[in-house]
Amino acid sequence: MIMLDPLLRGVFAPAVVVIVMMVVGHRIWRNRGDRKAEFLPAIAIGLGVSVSYVALFGWTKVPPAEHWQWTFVLIGIATLASILTPHLSRRPAAGAIVWIIIAALSSWLIVPSWEAFEATRLQWHGAVAMLVFANLAATSRLNQKNDGLLPLLLLCIAAGFGSVVAGLAHTAKLAQLCGALATTLGVLWIVGSLKRKRGHVIGIGAIPSVMLPACALLAYFYESSGEFHPTAFVICGALPFVVGAAVRVSGKRLAGWKRVVILSLITAIPGAIAVILVVLASQGDDPYAY
Amino acid sequence: MSKLSQDVLSRSTRVWIMLLSAAVILGCGSQSFADAYKIDGMHSSVMFRVKHLNVSPFYGRFNSVSGKIQVNDDPTKSTFEVIVKTESLDTNDKKRDGHIKGTDFFNVREFPTITFKSKSIKTGDKGVLKVTGDLTCHGVTKSITVDMTATGSGPDPWGGFRTGFETTFTIKRSDYGMDYMLKMLGDDVKLFVALEGVKQ
Q1: Staple partner for A14: which of A48, A66, B8, B66, CB 3.0–4.6 Å?
Q2: B180 has a chain A CB within 8 A of its CB
Q3: Any alpha helices (H) in B86-172, and if so which ranges?
Q4: Residues A222-239: pLDDT tens digits?
Q5: CA Rg value for chain A
Q6: Which helix (H) or strand (E) holds B143?
Q7: Contact flag B110-A290 (C-beta cutoff 8 Å)
Q8: Minimal Cα–Cα distance from B191 to chain A, Å?
Q9: Rounded to an integer, what is the distance from CA B99 to the centroid of its chain?
Q10: Cβ <8 Å between A172 and B177
Q11: Cα(B98)–Cα(A223) distance, rounded to whole angstroms?
Q12: How far is B41 from chain A (nearest CA, A)?
């Protein structure tokens, strides 16, 4: 069932924020050179997802009442990482230190301290930190000059799969958050395609690198029936790494539509596997068909 | 010992017995009796009714109910403590249960119980007890007053003694931080609670 209200809050609101930020922001910074505007896409996505979060779920206190609400803080951390990325990509050692800090912080905020995960908590902390670090490392070097705007579309596809998996795992809130992320990335890709400006891609990978593992794994942690295996959720959380690695490895060997199709398939196939795994586990394709 | 002294002793013994009996009777009269009952989850029910799409109500239940009741001969001194496990939610649909147990509604991982602890009781009309207490749900505690009716009491076939109570009341789920999808599932949730206690 499609309802207008969630669409307004979860799709149109972040889309409008991204469009306004990229159009008005570039107008303000157009005379200051492209380098100065590198942070605009990061802020546009971070603000877009934040606005969507507040519109959907309201303000969140810190510390929040519910564990999943740390995602609101994670949006801020991911946006900061995204803003820093263009600068850190030129200083690999500093970049690695910052990615380690962000990965550790993300792991601390994502993995719950509930009794149900007492026995495996340490492993989860390690796995989530490694996942976020791998995502950040793989996506931090993506930039428009070498890679074009395609990474935005691929990350949008990845976030879309994250949204589907979180939704299938009965966590509509996390699915909507992933959906808002997919919307911002998709709109940024469209804006960039219509008005080619540098700085639309560089650093952008940091936000899905943190938010996709957060949403996918939180969906797994909250699912209480025990019917799902974590594999599908880990695959979703690793999709930014898949995008980063695929784009870097393919380099300039692929071009044009062939590149778009092959890289989209490389992103979509693991995403589809994750969806199939969750559907098979839940024995149904629509968790809200009741 | 002479017969006279035996009579004197027996008379004084009788006086002591009478005095002690009077003291016990007076003492008991100044304080009320309380019987402790353990809630029998098998024969207690907590059900809820919520409107779907503002069209028709559907009903769900919690299959795990526990707690204790102190029944006092002065009803205003009775107490109720009810604990419901949120994981035991059952709406006769696995997918719907999964959704309602998740972050969007009950969040059973973080809030595994719903509790009610009575704070004060007043007697109402026709023996109805106005029970005021703290209802804690989804991490939010609010004071509510419910009309509790004693439904009966008596011996069971296994040599025990049982008592029963029943109440129906309505809460707004948004008051307890469950304000998601208010247009799809109504804000007003009517609860039907029937408790059977086994005397301890």
Answers
A1: A48
A2: yes
A3: 94-101
A4: 987 778 899 999 999 999
A5: 18
A6: strand B140-155
A7: no
A8: 22
A9: 28
A10: no
A11: 7
A12: 22
- Residues of chain A contacting residue B99, judged by C-beta atoms under 8 Å apart: 170, 172, 287-288
Q: Which pair of tokens denotes residue B19?
A: 């005095």
Q: What distance in Å separates the CA atoms of residue A287 and residue B112, rounded to the nearest whole number?
A: 22
Instruction: Provide the shortest C-alpha distance from residue B128 to chain A (in Å).
Output: 37
Q: What is the ipTM of this complex?
A: 0.81
Given a contact cutoff of 8 angstroms between Cβ atoms, the answer to whether B109 and A114 are in contact is yes
Q: Is B101 on the interface with A (CB under 8 A)?
A: yes
Tell me, what's the pLDDT at B29? 46
Asked if A284 and B93 come within 8 Å (Cβ–Cβ), the reply is no
Residue owning tokens 């969007």: B104
* Burial call B30-40: b when 16+ CB within 10 Å, e when fewer: eeeeebebebb
Residue B11 has pLDDT above 60, yes or no: yes
DSSP 8-state assignment for residue A258:
H
In the stretch 74-93 of chain B, residues with CB closer than 8 A to chain A read 87, 93
Interface of A with B (CB under 8 A): 3, 5, 57-58, 65-68, 112, 114, 116, 169-174, 218, 221-225, 227, 282, 284, 287-290
Q: How far is A14 from chain B (nearest CA, A)?
A: 19
Residues 6+ apart with CB under 8 A from A201: A41, A142, A143, A144, A147, A148, A149, A151, A152, A192
Does the structure show a pLDDT above 80 at A52? Answer: yes
Cis peptide upstream of residue A64 (ω within 30 degrees of 0)? no
pLDDT digits (tens, 9 = 90+) for A85-134: 888 877 888 889 999 999 999 999 999 988 888 889 999 999 999 999 99
| CB contact (8 A) between residue B109 and residue A222 | yes
Residue range A15-27, pLDDT digits in tens: 999 998 888 877 7
Q: Which tokens is A60 given?
A: 């969140």
pLDDT digits (tens, 9 = 90+) for B13-66: 666 666 666 555 544 444 567 899 999 999 999 999 999 988 999 999 999 999
Q: Is A241 helix (H, G, I), strand (E, B) or coil?
A: helix
Q: What are the sequence ranges of the domains in chain A?
A: 4-282
CB–CB contact A288 B99 (8 Å):
yes
Read off the pTM: 0.85
Residue A287 and residue B177: Cβ atoms within 8 Å? no
